[in-house]
UniProtKB/TrEMBL annotation:
It comes from the Bacteria. This is glutathione-specific gamma-glutamylcyclotransferase. Its EC number is 4.3.2.7. InterPro entries: ChaC, GGCT-like, GGCT-like_sf. Keywords: Lyase, Transferase. Pfam families: ChaC. GO terms for biological process: glutathione catabolic process. GO terms for molecular function: glutathione specific gamma-glutamylcyclotransferase activity; transferase activity. GO terms for cellular component: cytoplasm.
Length: 176
């Protein structure tokens, strides 16, 4: 069976698994935002960073990429993704419909935020997000690096995200 994964944050630039096909797509009903405190990868328990998650929003749609997993690697890929994404159970694994830019519709493994989890922090003002991202550092490096890589890859894909663009400029100014 063909397996797809929807990427909207670090999976855009660091999928970590064999990708057979990558196609831009849109996931309706979800908004990309820095609504998850990161206590492992981009922050610590003492000084949490922020990472992107999908927050349910009826009037929203998130543009990203659908990644078709290389045939024969589906089980290993799912195991890898669960180890990576479900490290603290703040994400929930869902099978969601993604509309691809080429007209296809696929069901993709998608990681969304659990709004009842202690790491959920939806609705933080952008300035507060910028201050956190500018200073946080975790096991996978500076929080700012995560922001810059994601914003750069969205730009390369032709995906507009004004909040990430503003955050990139503001975090760079804070760190200067």
């Amino acid at each position: 069976m063909t397996m797809w994964v929807f990427g909207y944050g670090s999976l855009l630039w660091n999928p970590g698994f064999d990708v057979a096909e990558s196609v831009r797509g849109t996931l309706p009903g979800w908004a990309r935002s820095f609504c998850m405190r990161s206590i492992h990868h981009r922050g610590s328990e003492a000084a949490p960073g922020l990472v992107l998650a999908l927050d349910a929003a009826a009037d929203a749609a998130c543009d990203g990429v659908a990644l078709r997993v290389a045939p024969g690697t589906e089980d290993a890929t799912l195991g890898y993704l669960r180890e990576r994404e479900l490290i603290s159970s703040a994400y929930l694994e869902r099978m969601l419909q993604v509309a691809l830019t080429d007209g296809r519709r696929v069901t993709a493994v998608t990681y969304v935020i659990d709004p009842d989890h202690v790491q959920y922090c939806g609705g933080l003002p952008l300035e507060e997000q910028a201050q956190i991202i500018a200073h946080a550092h975790g096991g996978r490096g500076p929080n700012s690096e995560y922001l810059y890589n994601t914003a750069q890859h969205l730009t390369e894909l032709g995906v507009a995200d004004p909040d990430l663009d503003w955050l990139s400029r503001r975090v760079a100014a804070i760190r200067a």
